[in-house]
Every structure is written in C-alpha cells, then in structure tokens.
Design a protein that fits this description.
The chain is mainly beta and about 200 residues long. The protein has no helices and 18 strands. The strands form 4 sheets. The chain has a 6-stranded antiparallel sheet with strand order 1-2-3-10-5-8, with no helix packed on it. A 4-stranded antiparallel sheet has the order 4-9-6-7, with no helix packed on it. The model has no long low-confidence stretch (mean pLDDT about 90).
Length: about 200
C-alpha cells in the first residue's frame, strides 16, 4: 500500500496489477484504491480503463461525467463510468473519502459495499469462475473464513481496519464468509471481484 498526493487530496493505493505498473504510466490492468477528496475539481482521465466508484465517508458529492450528473451520497451505490470521460466532483459539504476500482480493457469486474454484523455472511456477488476477490474493511476488525470440503482445506483470516484480503483465482464452489468481531453496527465492508475476459 502507498499514499500519493494530488491537487484535490490524496490516494491510498490498496492494490495494483501488475505490481511493477504505475498510475503515472497508466499501464496497470487493474487498480483498487481509496481517495480522500478535499476540494472540488476534475478527476484524472484514464482513457484505457473503466472506473467504479463509491462513497465511503463524508456528505458526498455531485459527479459530473461528460453531460451526465449523479449524486454520490450513499456508500451502497456504486457508479461505473469510462475513464476517458471528462469527470469532475463538486463536494456537497466538506471532504469525502471514496473507493475506486479501475479495470483495463479485457477485464470485467464489480464492486459493492455490504453492512457487516457479528453474524456470518457469505460473499454472494454474482461472479465468474476463478475470479479474483477483494475484501476491504476501512473501519472494522473482521474475521473471514473459508470452509473447505476437507478439514485440511479450511482457512481463516483476521483483518484489522484498513487491511485488504486478496483471493486470487477463487472457485465458485468456495464462498468466503465474513463477520465483525466487535458489536459495531452501521459500518460496511467493500467487496469486489475481477477477472480477465
């Protein structure tokens, strides 16, 4: 993970592929990141990528993409738009934090946030076989488990706030489950999947 500063705020890069690629060169196949936007302004263009974006913290903003406007004020609503479009954000009331998934041509994927409780919940997003899964909690301590067909296949992970779990080439037959270890409510986990077409 790395943090970079830009004119409107800063970006925490959670994952990028291939690892040696960079945002400056725009040569990555996919990138997962969280940005803190401190002032209204234009977004950087990424002509070779699709963008998925959702709010994480703050009052939200108005997103202008070419001739279309959308309100970004709900963490459970994900917007998808072309990186080649002219896009800009008008903050509603103060700084915001968002989450971004960018996919190069030849990749498919999706992203959503789900509320988290102390009960086990499955990763239920429709996805293709052997896709890469991303699970990110920016606020909660989470337990993630995978019950295998045999006891030796069982796996579990403990995610501290800010940790990212990346599960590559994950079969449909194995569905990860997650839960919060604290009694906190009202917080959510970001789930995403991606795969080369």
């Amino acid at each position: 993970m790395s943090i970079s500063n830009w004119a409107g705020g800063s970006t925490l890069q959670l994952a990028i592929y291939p690892a040696q690629s960079s945002v400056a060169a725009q040569d990555f196949l996919w990138r997962f990141s969280s940005a803190t936007v401190e002032q209204s302004g234009d977004f950087t263009k990424f002509p070779a990528h699709q963008r998925l974006l959702a709010l994480r913290q703050g009052a939200g903003f108005t997103l202008q993409v070419d001739n279309h406007q959308a309100q970004v004020d709900n963490p459970y609503h994900c917007l998808r738009f072309a990186g080649k479009s002219h896009s800009s954000a008008q903050l509603s009331k103060g700084a915001v934090t968002d989450i971004n998934l960018m996919l190069a041509a030849g990749y498919q994927g999706n992203m959503q946030a789900l509320p988290v409780s102390s009960d086990w919940q499955p990763f239920m997003m429709p996805r293709p076989e052997y896709s890469t899964l991303l699970l990110w909690s920016d606020e909660l301590t989470l337990e993630v488990r995978q019950e295998g067909a045999a006891q030796s296949d069982a796996q579990s992970w403990l995610l501290q706030p800010g940790d990212l779990l990346l599960m590559e080439h994950w079969p449909l037959a194995h569905t990860p489950e997650f839960r919060a270890l604290t009694g906190e409510t009202g917080s959510s986990l970001v789930l995403a999947w991606l795969k080369a077409c």
